[in-house]
Amino acid sequence: GGYGIARITTILPTAPQTTLLPLIALALWGSIMANIICLRQTDLKSLIAYSSVGHMALVILALLTKTPWGLTGAMVMMIAHGLTSSMTFCLANTAYERSNTRTLIIATGMQLTLPLLATWWLLANLANMALPPSINIIGELSIMSTLFYWSPTTIIPLTINTLLTATYSLYMLITTQRGKPNTTMYMYPAHTREHLLLALHMMPLVLLIINPTLITGP
């Protein structure tokens, strides 16, 4: 979807700011609403899915500016969030296999029984909230810089969007990992294949942190 929007925006003629303003305002509002919906979710996989909606709204915002910096930020965001979202979905599946439920208030306290998976949960959520030095923050800062140059007023909804992203990420982490473990769940140890799968998500993210020019260009 992001690739298709990038192709369309590059072939469109240069539009004045007044023409793009309703579209950018709608994307900003949609991003904030998607993040607020994340805070109201009780289903773990629904929360992760709505987080992708919020991040893809930022991609649309960057592409609507039709600037090289915005295109770079959108591409970095798509790659970084693609790896991060897939990693969190894998973690949600590991929790579902042990608890047979996706309800957040039931699948709790997994840090005490599965400490290694709790480490993966922490890394995934820190990347999702774009904590430095993750590649996610490069994408978000590029998009925020592009939109601020386009219109300084956009910094207000973008700041609200960033705070909401950090809030629901911490909410997901604390709800699933902290608290009293559910005694009805059979918490068998994590398999090697699960750690390998999560490591294969994290290694590209670390590689891009070391050398971001692989996707941003020289």
From TrEMBL:
It is a multi-pass membrane protein. It catalyses: a ubiquinone + NADH + 5 H(+)(in) = a ubiquinol + NAD(+) + 4 H(+)(out). InterPro entries: NADH_UbQ_OxRdtase (IPR003918), ND/Mrp_TM (IPR001750). Its main location: mitochondrion. This is NADH-ubiquinone oxidoreductase chain 4. Core subunit of the mitochondrial membrane respiratory chain NADH dehydrogenase (Complex I) which catalyzes electron transfer from NADH through the respiratory chain, using ubiquinone as an electron acceptor. Essential for the catalytic activity and assembly of complex I. Core subunit of the mitochondrial membrane respiratory chain NADH dehydrogenase (Complex I) that is believed to belong to the minimal assembly required for catalysis. Complex I functions in the transfer of electrons from NADH to the respiratory chain. The immediate electron acceptor for the enzyme is believed to be ubiquinone. Pfam families: Proton_antipo_M. The gene is ND4. Belongs to the complex I subunit 4 family. Keywords: Electron transport, Membrane, Mitochondrion, NAD, Respiratory chain, Translocase, Transmembrane, Transmembrane helix, Transport, Ubiquinone. GO terms for biological process: ATP synthesis coupled electron transport; electron transport coupled proton transport.
